[in-house]
Amino acid sequence: MANHVSSLKRVRITERRTAINKMRRSRMRTVIKALRKAMANKDLELSQSLLPKTYSVVDRAAKWGIIKKNTASRYKSRLAARLKKLQPAA
Description:
Layout: H1 5-40, H2 44-64, H3 69-86
Helix pairs in contact: 1-2, 2-3
């Protein structure tokens, strides 16, 4: 265990940041799961309404460093591709 005051402070900060990051990652996964469930149920209207919210949460997670930028881009790309398959051909 750390003995220096600054080390003890870093431990406290790290624990607090870890809890916040865990909460944010969990929220991101929940939002993605909800969108995937709507797509699986072929609910086009709900899926289209959830997409911008999901993009926002994923982008913020990338901004905060919860996930990497390319990972965020991959999530968004795959979700958009799945949504596009749901839409009827024009």
